[in-house]
Amino acid sequence: MEKPADTQFHIHELLKRRWSPRAFTDHPVEREKIQSLLEAARWASSCFNEQPWVFIVATTDHPAEYQALLSCLVEGNQIWAKRAPLLMLTVAKLHFEHNGQVNRHAYHDVGLAVGNLVVQATAMDLAVHQMGGILPDKIHECYALPAGYEAVTGIAIGYQGDPKILPDPLGERELAPRSRKPLREFVFSGSWGHSPEFL
Q: How far is it, in rounded angstroms, from Cα 176 to Cα 170?
């Protein structure tokens, strides 16, 4: 199912096609595609080239590892994410390697890496759904995160499935139109709240 963005201005087709379904098939994600996803993330830009991202990965090929990672998601996300053949957790390194100072850009840079991953996934016809609903304390315990590292998000990846497999209201949300705030609500020039003339 395609849900292309109804854009105000022209954007790349991959960005128009990207959205976050919750319905997945059980078809595994090929090893080569997983490698490509992580390679795309690896080449994201970051402050001081710190690359403060860590990805914890589990596939249904390894059921015990998969169940452990799945259990680190909140229950509402487990309901649908358990069908995705590839799950990930993102982790941020919170201090710079070169001076030990706090890296206040770490979360931003993790987001950039995931952004690369999502575009690469879309190019390979994979569906990606990112989740804020994770259990950080459980992740710390389950994966023995070192001091100075913090869990950021969960990610479900796979091939898009039939929305009918989802219970309501998730099935309804899957079919609902996409929407975004207009640019004038968040792009300012000159003073706060004042939109630039080109919008």
A: 10
Q: At what angle do helices 106-123 and 31-42 cross, to 10 degrees?
A: 140
CA of 185: how far to CAs of 6, 126, 192, 198, in Å? 17, 31, 10, 14
**Phi–psi pair at 156, nearest 5 degrees:** -110, 135
Q: How many helices (DSSP H) and strands (DSSP E) are in the chain?
A: 7, 4
pLDDT band at 1 (very low <50, low <70, confident <90, very high): confident
User: What is the average per-residue pLDDT within 162-183?
Assistant: 94
Q: In order of start, what are the domains of the chain with their CATH numbers? A: 14-164 (3.40.109.10)
Could you list the beta-strand ranges (E) of the chain: 53-59, 86-93, 127-131, 149-158
Nearest to 145 by CA among 160, 134, 156, 132: 134
Q: In this predicted structure, what is the pLDDT of residue 148?
A: 98
- What is the rounded average pLDDT for all residues in the chain? 97
59 three-class SS = strand
Judge contact between 173 and 76, C-beta under 8 A: no
Model pTM? 0.96
Cβ–Cβ < 8 Å for 57, 31: no
How many C-beta atoms surround the C-beta of residue 41 within 10 A? 22
- 63-78 tens-digit pLDDT: 999 999 999 999 999 9
